[in-house]
Amino acid sequence: MSVGFVMLVHEALNRAEQVARHWSRKGCPVVIHVDKRVTRADYTAFVKSLSDLDNILFSTRHRCEWGTWSLVEASITATRLMLKSFADVRHVYLASGSCLPLRPVEELIAYLQERPQTNFIESVTTEDVPWTVGGLDAERFTLRFPFSWKRHRRLFDGYVNLQRKVGFKRRIPPGLVPHMGSQWWCLTRQTLTAIFDDPDFDEYVRYFRRVWIPDESYFQTMVRLYSANIESRSLTLSKFDFQGKPHIFYDDHMQLLRRSDCFVARKIWPHADKLYDGFLSDSANIMTGAEPNPGKIDRIFSKAVERRTKGRPGLYMQSRFPNQDWENGKTSAQYSVFQGFAELFEDFETWLGRVVGARVHGHLFGEDRVGFSGGVEVFSGALTDNAAIRDYNPRAFFTNLIWNTRGERQCFQFGPADNQAINWFMATDPNAQISVISGAWAVPLFHSNKDFSEIRKEAARLQKIESELLNILRSPYAKARVRVWSMADFVEAPMEPLQTIIDEIGARSAHRLTAAPRMVSLDGFGQFLQNLKNQGMHPHLMGDFPTGVAGVQNRPEPGKPYLVK
Amino acid sequence: MGAVSSYQLRLQRKRWRIRALRKRRELSEVVNRTDKIAPKDILVFSTLRNERVRLPYFLRYYREMGVEHFLIVDNGSDDGSAEYLRAQKDVSLWSTVRSYKRARFGVDWLNWLQRKYGHGHWCLVVDPDEFLVYPFCDTRPLRALTDWLDASSIRSFGAMLLDMYPKGPLGAQPYREGQDPFEIACWFDSGNYMIQKNRQFGNLWIQGGPRARAFFPDKPERSPALNKIPLVKWHRNYTYVSSTHMLLPRGLNLVYDEWGGEKASGCLLHAKFLDTFSAKAEEELRRGQHYANSHEYKAYDARIKQDPDLWCKWSEKYINWRQLEILGLMSKGNWA
Lengths: 565, 336
Hints:
heterodimer, A: 565 residues, alpha/beta, Rossmann fold, five-stranded mixed β-sheet, five-stranded parallel β-sheet, 21 helices, 13% strand, B: 336 residues, seven-stranded mixed β-sheet, three-stranded mixed β-sheet, 16 strands
């Protein structure tokens, strides 16, 4: 009692020869089906190269095309030849020319010996299959597919859509419950002969001839009719990517394949010399007796698929440049934007840095230069403080900065005097935490020593810009966590808003803030606003500042740097 | 993209092909070993001028990667480059003394050679100072990549130009023949690249790196393009439009994903900034044979004279392709 291998071969004949020879030498009969598209000369040479081995047979050749019945037909012909010619074969193992045995054949034989009646075939109902290509699963069994998917894609798709519209449905033969799964199986003689000798065999064949990709469904469905002893998994390690194309193994997968403890893997790159030499040599015959465990390989390949379909959030690069709203993360990490804080508090940046332990920049979008933390000229990723380069592509500058500093939260000051080009970008970015003290831009003007007419003009300009930003932040499209206080409200009770912001950032110290930053002097600010009003401008973003009152009542006494609550 | 603009691009493609046909007369065959090219060989196409000292390492690098044949146009070298190349068994050589500029910086010549010899092959178009790095290049030959691209029905492979530079003045460490240039120029900028989409051709336009930072701080829009698509399964109807930055038909330029995923891509390590650079910059400035009135070389010349160090505190030292992958400069895509 042993296992026989049916090999479907269409390319890399030299590798197929190597593998067939390996199995045959270990006493396992091999039946090879060579695709009819292989030239006669190549075929003859291939047959000749294996002519010294009498337990290798060649079955009638069919022209095989992906997704069609021909592949099943080839395996049926070859399997029948196997069952007829080698009476002692109990399990038939379907393999391809690019399969490679990873464990000694003796181990496979022993494994199957212990499970003499078990059929190893992945067989899942169509509702439970997540991996179909082109969204066709149940419809594979109910529509007609006269056009080649590879060569006439448009006709194929068009005809499918037409049938959907018309509501056409094929009748599934009674008794059949469509199942699907990997086309690489290992079935018992009992099951196979039951399939082939069934009086309805021809009817089923007629039905499956017109099913889409029958090699993933014919045996998978039929086996359910004749056997209750089914292990729904393939003994062949075979991974598919998001387009339904098999992942390929290379020399550098050697260790991974060894540790997988799978019996056979596909598909192997034909030039992977190390893999072929390593796994086919006699020294590879270390018996482990372990259960197949493809978990680690699964993880690597599913990661690859995820990288291809989702990518790394917030990364913009030569092979990932998502259209708007397809970014899967506009930026790679959370960041905080502060507008008006540095104007209202002395040394706000230092204070913030101390409290939250993040990187705190000045005005990154400052008019004349980029205000990197510490005033440096070059920052992470070799970004420079040059305003012209930044303004050439502000979005690239900003996403680069956030990407380059992954793992460290970025905070920066913003204001109406800065470049406003990325307002929409930030407002629609869920990673942004934007806190605005509206009208605080007036404080530096208030302290400046400019002509009042100039101040008035500048105030009007800044107010207009800030209003626009506030409109954006209030738009229904905004996804950032936005907080806006009017300056008057903020000055009234600064601790609470600060505490909220800091808590949200997730500061180092969980306990409550004990010290607020020192506020700049606002003596006479109310009068300053009144003067602006008197000049015909209407400063409204600050909120209501009482005129005559000197600044705010609860600001700290002079000489006492911190407010202790 | 409407039918009209699509047709305009078709006309443009034909125009470049006819131009290549016309410019073929400027090439004279020095040695033609193209009969040795086997059907599945990977080919390198290159134009060069006075690169003798770089050639041995260049050829070795790509031979070890699995390139089977080199097709090279020598644009009037007088330093022995032609003699050296002629003696190589896997090189076919053409020479011309005609204007590099008027052959659209060599594109016309190579378009012709590719049309004639590249059809059906994977073709890599690189300058002698460009070194391809792709995912798993330390364990898998180039053939593994092209087989995978074939199996995935991908026709072109993008590799951004990554400018490499030494620490200290450019002239401080002289380059010896045969040496790995990245023993000297092993630093690069990791995260200051700016990308825009070219709507007409569908390619990305990438700028930035040390050249934008050091040479074009005032006119960043003029800093050189870094996007490249050097590896293409060539068809005789294809044509490069401008250097290897973009191709026609425009579908070949779609080497990036627009729906959030990452396609596989590589990098072209650019060993331009070696001690040979200042001499080269001066010569090219004199010849005026480069893009847009050689404004690039003018900027280099001005800067190199006052402060030749491109290195900064945030420069990254090159280790391997995995490092570039982690930094987000290239990607494995779904190749695993």
